[in-house]
Amino acid sequence: MEELPVVVVLLxxxxxxxxxxxxxxxxxxxxxxxxxxxxxxxxxxxxxxxxLRLLSCLSESYSPRHYVLADSDxxxxxxxxxxxxxRAETFSESQFSLDRIxxxxxxxxxxxxxxxxxxxxxxYSLPLTYKRKPDLILCNGPGTCVxxxxxxxxxxxxxxxxxxxxxxxSICRVETLSLSGKILYYFSDYFIVQWPDLKKKYPKSxxxxxxx
Length: 212
Fold this sequence. Notes:
Helix content is 43%, strand content 15%. It is of the alpha/beta class. Helix 5 crosses helix 6.
C-alpha cells in the first residue's frame, strides 16, 4: 500500500517525541477488573449511526465511554448525547465524555497536505489518548480514527498503556476497504468485515456477517 511508508515514518518520529512520557508515567500494576474504559471514534455521515448501534449491544461494563470526534463534525455530538440520555434511563451510573480533535483529512484534500494535517492530528491525539488510557478502542472507518488508533498503538509500543483496537469496516464496504481500513488493517487487534469478499482479500480480518 502506498500509504504505509508515510505511516511508518510518522510512527518512528512520534516514538521519539513520546520518550518523556515513558519516564513520567506511573503505571498501576495488579489485576484489572471491570468496568473497562472504552474509547469510541465517531464520524460524520453514517459512521456515528453505525457505531451507536454497536454500542447499544454492549453491557454497562464498558464504562466510562469516551467519544472522540472531529472538530468540524456538527452532527455527531447531538446523536451521541441523545443515545447516552436514553441509556441513562436504564443504567443510572452511565458515564461518558466528549472530546474533539482536528480532522486528519477533508474531502478532496490533496495527499501532500493530508500528510501534514494527519501528523498534526496525531500529535493532538497523543495527550488525549494518554489522558484517557482506554482499555478498548472501537471504530468503524471515519478518518478521525486513524490518528487516535495510531497514538494508542504508540503508547502500547512504549509500554505506557496497552489498548485493544477493534476496527469494524462499514457495511457500505463490499469489495474494497476504506482508506482508514487499509491503514488500520495492520495496527488493529481485531479487524471485522461484514462481507465475505473482503474476508477473502484480507485474511487477517474476521467475517461476522452483517452486524449493524
